[in-house]
Specification:
Chain lengths: 111, 111
DNA sequence: TTGTTCTATCGTAAAAAAACGATAAACTAA
DNA sequence: TTAGTTTATCGTTTTTTTACGATAGAACAA
């Protein structure tokens, strides 16, 4: 795949795409909202609220964790998840940077 | 798929996920950058720069267009694309809204 | 110990995304 | 008209994502 032509994609482009992918599913956005509302933790509560099976929710949590957006710790038999605010701040600024950098170039459409 | 449990996903969650999905590939982010830099248009130039086949680039352009992020017009045998700034502004504010609304709830991690 | 609860992981199936080559349509230039 | 450009679309393959049920491990309760 992608057999190098002129340019490869930059690291920034790839990072942003990875972050975007983590947000590219309504379930994962819903999870982030829940974690933010409840301030923290929660685990099986997410399963109760979402229209998905437990194993599927677990999978989404894993993806969010892999993307660095959330942190998780084990609490006895339960699992506690919460938003990783530092990483979140980073993503936020990267997105803002993308938007503003695109915008400041030129704000006219040609077609 | 998603056999309704308690809540379905909200429209806002789905919209955001759709936008995120449009940005979830380095090629599409690269395309947006190129369009912003060149202010507008371009078509085969994108193919020259990206490490992808022409048909693949065309596919990505189509996805960006479907997501409403870019506009396209035909100019003779060529195709002219440019960023749809209105839609872009909307996405930008939706993302900002997500980030800030999550953040303002509570900024403490529990785990 | 035994049973219960909670959650991660495994195995699997179905759907979507990504990529390519080939082709066809639309236009320009000779 | 004929040849060349440019790009969208078709057909296809491969990979990734999404989803589920079943299961296993960990911890608590009785």
């Amino acid at each position: 795949m992608a057999t190098a032509k002129t340019t490869e994609f930059t690291q920034a482009e790839q990072d942003l795409a990875t972050f975007a992918k983590a947000l590219a599913h309504p379930a994962r956005i819903a999870i982030l909202k829940i974690l933010a509302e409840q301030n923290a933790c929660i685990c099986g509560k997410i399963v109760e609220v979402l229209p998905l099976a437990q194993s599927t929710v677990s999978q989404h949590l894993k993806e969010l964790k892999n993307a660095g957006l959330i942190k998780g710790t084990v609490e006895g038999p339960k699992s506690c998840y919460c938003i990783n605010w530092e990483a979140f701040e980073k993503i936020n600024s990267e997105f803002s940077f993308l938007f503003t950098s695109l915008k400041t170039q030129n704000s006219k459409s040609c077609c």
